[in-house]
Design goal:
The chain is an alpha/beta fold and 340 residues long. The protein is built from 13 helices and 11 strands.
Length: 340
């Protein structure tokens, strides 16, 4: 077997049942449910947004991981929509819109505090700006480019990357020498040829919370991650060449507790709550005033802070909306034939 696809344990039946509404149609639910990425990000959601939401409404927030598109599609198309909120990367939001999996947000009902324009979209609240960056143990040769990440002859060992085409293909092209500003339109053939070069040494992960474990167990020498691997925890990181993205919270089509989902989204728009979140995970929230409330140390530790932007690539969401289905189909074929 050329790789390991690591999966998370499914949420228990008790957690699922906790999300049922006690009040019936129009009543107050005992809890609402969010599917999100977990790890430090999940902890920030719980502490910075879930706790204030519960204090304000008396309704609990139940969290589950990971938020893959297949799970969302199965939920909506079966009519058994158990989640009220769902986390998606920016490139996945348009795919979900095109597949009729999520509903438009009622911004009047959400009544947000001031937000950056890019974070306030018809279908999602952009609650985090993050970047896919490189990490390793401190006793491993430090690297700053995806070319070095890909170079298994210089540093033998496994490389762990996200199990999603929309993240794997961009870094594969950057590793093959494509400049960040020339990333789009993506050269699909070139990207897969680049991935083939290290297929024997690839580990795919579902959630970034797995990446520190992969390093500490020495299953991987380098990881591509967007959180959970930080210098304060004994890791080496490089934000150079990282790929910037935004993570959105959306409402699945057929969600049962939209009123309370909107109330949680309101809490996510508050700058004071975003300050709490940034203290747990150094990712920028959507308030234009956020950086004014953060220490220099926190800002410096943010992978996607403004000072890093010049060396980083970004996503073209429109390209992924147009080409995502075809790329994902080829990605699944690649995993089966080259990684299986």
């Amino acid at each position: 077997m050329k790789f390991r696809l690591i999966t998370l344990v499914a949420v228990s039946a008790m957690a699922l049942s906790a999300c049922s509404s006690s009040g019936g149609s129009g009543g107050t639910p005992d809890a609402i449910r969010m599917v999100e990425t977990g790890g430090a990000s999940g902890e920030s959601i719980k502490v910075a947004y879930g706790n204030p939401f519960t204090e304000a409404t008396g309704v609990k927030l139940v969290q589950e991981t990971p938020p893959d598109m297949g799970k969302l599609e199965a939920m909506v198309k079966s009519g058994n929509v158990t989640a009220d909120l769902y986390e998606l990367g920016g490139s996945a939001v348009q795919l979900a819109v095109d597949s009729d999996l999520i509903q438009k947000l009622d911004w009047e009902a959400i009544d947000p505090e001031p937000m950056n324009e890019a974070a306030k979209t018809p279908y999602g609240l952009g609650y985090q700006t993050f970047a896919l960056y490189m990490g390793s143990l401190k006793d491993t040769k430090p690297i700053t480019t995806w070319q070095e990440f890909w170079d298994t002859s210089a540093v033998p060992g496994k490389r762990a990357i996200p199990a999603y085409a929309r993240y794997a293909l961009p870094i594969a092209l950057l590793a093959d020498g494509v400049k960040p500003q020339d990333l789009y339109p993506i050269d699909i053939d070139r990207a897969f040829k680049s991935l083939e070069k290290i297929a024997d040494d690839l580990i795919l992960w579902d959630a970034a919370s797995q990446t520190p474990q992969l390093l500490e167990s020495k299953e991987a020498v380098y990881v591509a991650t967007w959180d959970n691997v930080y210098p304060k925890d004994g890791f080496y990181t490089s934000f150079d060449n990282a790929v910037r993205d935004q993570s959105f919270i959306v409402i699945p089509k057929g969600a049962k507790n939209v009123e309370y989902a909107n109330k949680l989204l309101h809490e996510m728009s508050k700058v004071e709550n975003q300050v709490k979140a940034a203290g747990i995970i150094p990712l920028a929230g959507p308030s234009p005033e956020l950086l004014d409330h953060l220490s220099a140390d926190v800002i410096e530790s943010m992978p996607a802070n403004p000072s890093n932007e010049a060396t980083q690539a970004t996503y073209d969401y429109a390209w992924w909306a147009e080409n995502g289905d075809a790329v994902n189909e080829r990605w699944e074929q690649f995993k089966l034939e080259s990684l299986g």
